[in-house]
């Protein structure tokens, strides 16, 4: 199980070249989503598994804790995280949530039923990106969702 988990590939992206997905990628950058959902990293050279060393990966996460505001706070301290801090989840594979899980529940507690709802729940450090999304034209919001669904 450990070997399987360590070597399981992330799902392949879909619809990469569709104009709406490309427009959504542009919105993702311009709205500031990348301040927490960092697109890419290179893995360490000195990993125990040489096949995983020095690989370009696209997790769309900085894997750091961020204060997400009172709306998402549960008041429970876990490790170093305060009750309003959450680790940025990787977005790779998020477009297959319904296929894999049989539901479309997002965020740490499943309160969001759509990607749009999940974005609109962002507060705290994610508030600026959330406000840009909320204030964007419907076509730009839809394009951003199509981009996320392609991950």
Report on the architecture of this protein.
The protein has helices at about 1-5, 20-30, 95-100, 115-120, 125-135, 140-150, and strands at about 40, 55, 65, 85. With about 150 residues, the protein is mainly alpha-helical. The protein has one domain (about 15-35, about 65-150). Strands 1-2 form a two-stranded antiparallel ribbon. Strands 3-4 form a two-stranded antiparallel sheet. The longest helix is centred in the last third of the chain and has 13 residues, at about 140-150. The two termini are about 25 Å apart.
Could you give the count of β-strands? 4
Distance between the termini: 25 Å
Class inferred from helices and paired strands: mainly alpha
Q: Rg, please?
A: 16 Å
How much β-strand is present in the residues?
5-15%
Secondary-structure element pattern, one letter each: HHEEEEHHHH
Average pLDDT rating: 95
Integer tally of domains: 1
Number of helices: 6
Principal-axis shape equals globular
- Helix % is 25-40%
Q: Which strand order spans the largest sheet, edge to edge or round the barrel?
A: 1-2
Quick one: biggest sheet? 2 strands, antiparallel
Low-confidence stretches: none
Features:
151 residues, mainly alpha, two-stranded antiparallel sheet, 4 strands
Outline of the structure:
Helix content is 34%, strand content 7%.
Question: What is the strand and helix layout of this fold?
Answer:
Blueprint: H1 2-7, H2 19-30, E1 41-42, E2 56-57, E3 65-67, E4 85-87, H3 97-101, H4 115-120, H5 127-135, H6 138-150
Antiparallel strand pairs: 1-2, 3-4
Helix pairs in contact: 2-6
């Amino acid at each position: 199980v450990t070997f399987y988990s360590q070597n399981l590939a992330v799902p392949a992206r879909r619809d990469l070249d569709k104009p709406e997905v490309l427009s959504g990628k542009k919105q993702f950058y311009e709205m500031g989503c990348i301040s927490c959902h960092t697109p890419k990293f290179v893995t360490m050279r000195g990993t125990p598994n040489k096949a995983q060393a020095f690989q370009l990966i696209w997790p769309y996460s900085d894997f750091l804790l961020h204060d997400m505001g009172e709306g998402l706070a549960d008041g429970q301290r876990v490790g170093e995280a305060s009750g309003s801090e959450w680790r940025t989840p990787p977005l790779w594979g998020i477009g297959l949530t319904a296929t894999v899980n049989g539901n479309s529940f997002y965020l740490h507690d499943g309160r969001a039923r759509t990607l749009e709802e999940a974005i609109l729940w962002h507060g705290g450090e994610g508030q600026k990106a959330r406000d840009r999304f909320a204030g964007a034209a419907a076509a730009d919001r839809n394009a951003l969702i199509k981009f996320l669904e392609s991950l």
